[in-house]
Amino acid sequence: MLANLLQGFDVVLTVSTLFACFIGALMGTFIGVLPGIGTLAGMSLLLPLTFTQTPVDAIVMLSGIYFGTMYGGSTAAILLNLPGSEPSAVVCLDGYPMSQQGRAGVALTLTTLASFVGGCSAILLVMAFAKPLVSVALSFSSVEYFSLILLALIASSTIAASSITRSLVMIIFGLLIGLVGIEVQTGYPRFTFGSESLLDGVSMVVVALGLFGVTEILWKFADGGDTRRSPSIDVSWRSMIPTRQDWREAARPIGRGTGLGSLIGILPGAGAAISSFVAYAVEKKISKNPSKFGKGAVEGISSAEAANNAAAQAAFIPTLALGIPGSATMALILGTLMIHGIQPGPRVISNNPDLFWGVIAGFWVGNVILIFLNLPLIGLWIRLLKVPYTILYQIILFFICFGAYSVSRNVFDVLLCIGFGFVGYCARRMDLPAAPVLLGMVLGPMAEEHLRRALLLGRGDYTIFLTSPVSLVCLVLALGTVALSIYQAHKHRRMQLKTQ
Amino acid sequence: MLARYFLKYAKYSSLALVALAGSATAEGYPERVVRMVVPFAAGGGTDVLGRAFAKELTEAFGQNVIVENIGGAAGFIGTQDVVRSDADGYTLLFAPTAPYTMAEHATPPATYDPAEDLIPVARIAAQPILFSVRSDSGFDTLADFLAVAKDDPGYLSFSSSGAGGEMHLTGEKLKQASGVDLLHVGYRGGGPAILALVSGEVDMMPVVTGSIMAYIQDGSVKALATTAPERLEKLPDVPTMTELGYPEVDHIPSWGVFVPAGTPDEVVAVLQEVSEKTATSVAFVEYLDTLSISPAYLPGADFLEVLKVQADGFGELMSTLDLGQ
Lengths: 500, 325
What we know:
Chain A: InterPro entries: DUF112_TM (IPR002823). Chain A: It comes from Mameliella alba. Chain A: This is Tricarboxylate transport protein TctA. The complex is a heterodimer. Chain A is mainly α. Chain A has one domain. In chain A, 74% of the residues lie in helices and 1% in strands. Chain A has 21 helices and 2 strands. A two-stranded antiparallel sheet of chain A has the order 1-2. In chain A, helix 4 packs parallel to helix 16 (353-383), helix 6 runs parallel beside helix 10 (244-265) and helix 6 crosses helix 12. Chain A is globular. Chain B is of the alpha/beta class. In chain B, 45% of the residues lie in helices and 19% in strands. Chain B is built from 12 helices and 11 strands. Chain B has helices spanning 2-26, 45-61, 76-84, 98-101, 114-117, 142-151, 166-178, 190-199, 209-218, 265-279, 282-290, 300-320; strands at residues 34-38, 65-69, 91-96, 118-126, 129-134, 157-160, 183-186, 204-208, 221-226, 254-260, 294-299. In chain B, the strands form 3 sheets. In chain B, strands 2-1-3-10-4-11 form a 6-stranded mixed β-sheet. In chain B, helix 1 (2-26) packs across helix 2 (45-61) and helix 1 packs across helix 11 (282-290). The longest helix of chain B has 25 residues, at 2-26. In chain B, 58% of the residues are buried. Chains A and B meet through helix 3, helix 14 and helix 19 of A and helix 1, helix 2, strand 2, helix 3 and strand 7 of B.
């Protein structure tokens, strides 16, 4: 493997590949910072540039954009409460409170380092265990997927700060939004009200920008606070450096996030969306002080960000080893190979070892470039907060509209996004949390799709979920999580009664 | 190996450029950048084909042909965009036949009328469907497969890239022609559907050559039959459906160029001429071959006939299924 890797670095350490890697990382960082201009849009934009490159340069550049957006994605989430993707929505939960406490620099430094550790460690996994991991991914059928997603959904239902009941209400709201669009098994359009714009469902990004970004602005203005004054925020370099306690609190979550992200990331289709939610929920569950989550917990942002980047790297395993893309961005990577006349498939690695190991080495180089690129930029980003709210919010609203529009170039999405902003405002007035909506929206349709397919293939026999060991373990864990929550709530109430 | 393809590709392309420059600019068209809408996401099969074709067109025209991905609603949204664009030859549609043939039969139907709103310029490429099973499935012939299916109706399953798509409908057509019952299982796109075949979640998949050839060459999957009229060069041992006695299962997904209705005849003529030269050029055909896609140039008028027959066939099939009801 070492020889292979050296061969890979031999391929990568040329001027053209390094340049491609740098351009990709740079573009990715900036695209990632702009909320809504997703990874896919950024990659498609630069796709024509890759035609004249060698396949290695092309893939390294595109994956640079991919990772770059992962690094950059948390920036707008932390500073402005603008999540441009599922993972950054999780980062919002604690990143934005940190930013409001004047700790934006610390949050950004920690997420950048968490991204780096998560990304780099997952590359090791990719290299060492590509083959066995692929067979694990292949052994997962809809039965296992359903139980796993159900477990993820139940385990993550506690991510919001408020009560379980309130979270459940919002998860169900999210599930309902997730049902909009064409059903896979029958092709039947659900809840589309005859609108072509709703046939493909509601975009998660549109909802997230509305519920987080628009709501925040409405809240600030409706609150009647002084919106003209620029907040007094320390933007010195020193403010960026995490304290010793921050480091201590972040270290283990980063490790756990990396592990979880790598494991979940190899499953085609599940990947990045689940990993951040699950990593965050796990940290909250095992924390001695879960009440600080949602109010600026370092553990929350560190684990979610590490998991997200690890999953992003791990997603390359099924893509390159099987030639099967787990997501739209991975499909674009394979499409790029096809444009270069390389047929994706199970033999891509053995037929093109230079390409595979070159790309792997390129990932590492990309991550190193990204950390050197991102750390100095933090000082620049946090200066944004010095801009007076009256000006800043107009800019933010512009970017929200632009981001919502760019999802599928449809004005309908912009209106929908603003609509969700009002929904989010009302929900916040009623103390209903927003994050579970996204959770329900992302995981609900996945769970439904796999449930229907599993039952279809099992000819309606529900015992299939119990006869598969992986599925059984997931279901038992899910049941255990529910039982634990009920027990904890019960104990909590008894304690309260006692103190009265 | 790869480098050689590229060198050849580059060489022929520049030759094509020299040969075509005269005739194409004689009409004064195109004078500026041409937009080519691909109604699917970047990186997908249609996008890759469209981009390769756009690259050739760019060289032939001496004007940039820019690919724009407008995905959504199985290609209807992007097609709708083209229908609404100016019919001046500066907006092209590169698409599979489905946005044309399925427009009326989908639920809900498309908001445009393909026969009224679109002019087919040329068919460019095609991919026959292979009825594929896992190599270790124990099925050596289609007859084996259908015999098991007949004994135990609904026991065997097939995957598709989504309900109502060409792969699903071809599976349904097989069911109808052979009188057996197979369980259809839909997936979100071709990738997951292939994964389901390879991992053993389903027993069979009607899948286009380009998507499955790598797995056949790898030995993990084998093809039992093809919908192509003749045996394929790369798979000489795989019989055609006609040979096996099911000539009606003959659907071959294909890709072509369309323009909005009202585009001047001269412009359509230029586009057709350039499309023919590009689609039949040695370089383009060789490129298609590396991806196991068949060259299938057909001029607009003949393409239109094929589209009409396909649309009617789908309409008939859809009415017997209770899709989306």
